[in-house]
Amino acid sequence: MTSLPLPIVLAGARGHGRWHLANIRRLQHQGLVRLAGICELTPLDATELAGFADESPEQSADFGALLDSTGARAAVICTPIQTHTALALTAAGRGVHLLLEKPPAATRADFDRIRAGVRDAGTACQVGFQSFGSHAVPAIRELVATGAVGTVRGYAAAGAWVRDDAYYGRAPWAGRRRIGDTDVVDGVLTNPLAHAVATALELAGTTAEDITAIDTELFRAHDIEADDTSCVRVTTASGPPVTAAVTLCAEQAGEPYVIVHGDRGRITFWYKQDRVLVQRAGHGPLETVHGRTDLLENLVAHLTEGAPLLVPPERTGAFMEVVEAVRTAPEPRPLPSDAWHTAPVPGTGATRRVVRGIDALVASGAETLALFSELGAPWARSEVTSP
């Protein structure tokens, strides 16, 4: 067991890393962790470190050296996807426990290397799918197990988000499938809306070993390598299918959600809000909002009290099969110019690309468990890709 506060290093403190920095600050004020170091190419200034009292964390661009000099017991890795494997293995080699942002790796082979590395080192690894910490997840599983919506016919995820054109200019790896010989796989299914895919697979109890086929349809409205408007169907040997339809080119931004389709009802889970709606035969609609366990807090509890990890790597194996299917699929197809238009982002001066009719198409995919081509999207070819 480890004593408190747990000394921790944050690798990647800008971009999404700012959320982790704020969360570490919250837990430090509770006496659970101590920010011992920050690994960034450019050090954070005093303004960025506001709230950490008089103890300024050590800063370095050398992750391994920083772990050594700070005596860190845990690290949060929130860096570009293609760097996860090397950093995770660096930490494991020093006996440092991990909170590893999603996706955990860009390839199945690298994911297997991470799993082997932390197993051999005897270190804990928590993968950053925050939705798995929602108390709605076990509540939904209980509803399904007790037959609340009858026999489950399928699980579906939908995500319609808006990202402006600058989103893909924020970093050299953004929107890339690879850089040189290095896989990145920064597509909508595998990174920005990865939670939608992973949460549906988690609720379905899908394991990597049970998957028999993964059908992908990958498209892009932006001038990028990766996909920004895509769908996927996961077929298993023993359970109902899992589908996801997602875009970053929505007409109107909406909350992503997962639907459990039963033959006597349905459960809708807005996972970012921890909100659940149950609709079933013979009952009125029932909506509940659930609590959530923070994943870093859970990692601390695991190391100090022996609490079970909420998201160990093995619980993300099915998601990594989807990542691998996207990685090895043919290049995403550019949408024809008449399928999308450019729209201003109010109050910013920025512009964004909008795929015509995509909001309804994404919702229809979640309703019917169908792929874009099966829904008759004029720009989607009839054939699908199943690696």
Give keywords.
387 residues; alpha/beta; Rossmann fold; Dihydrodipicolinate Reductase, domain 2; 2 domains; six-stranded parallel sheet; 26% helix; 25% strand; globular
Task: Provide an overview of this structure.
The chain has helices at 17-29, 63-70, 84-93, 108-121, 136-145, 194-204, 295-305, 317-328, 358-368, and strands at 6-11, 33-39, 58-60, 74-77, 97-100, 125-127, 152-160, 178-179, 182-183, 211-220, 229-236, 242-247, 257-262, 265-270, 275-280, 286-289, 333-334, 340-344, 351-355. It is of the alpha/beta class and 387 residues long. It has 2 domains: 6-130, 3-Layer(aba) Sandwich (Rossmann fold); 136-291 and 317-375, Dihydrodipicolinate Reductase, domain 2 (2-Layer Sandwich). A 9-stranded mixed β-sheet has the order 16-15-14-13-7-12-11-10-17. The longest helix is centred in the N-terminal third of the chain and has 14 residues, at 108-121. The radius of gyration is 21 Å and the shape is globular. The N and C termini lie far apart (44 Å). InterPro entries: Gfo/Idh/MocA-like_OxRdtase_N, Gfo/Idh/MocA_oxidrdct_glycsds, GFO_IDH_MocA-like_dom, NAD(P)-bd_dom_sf.
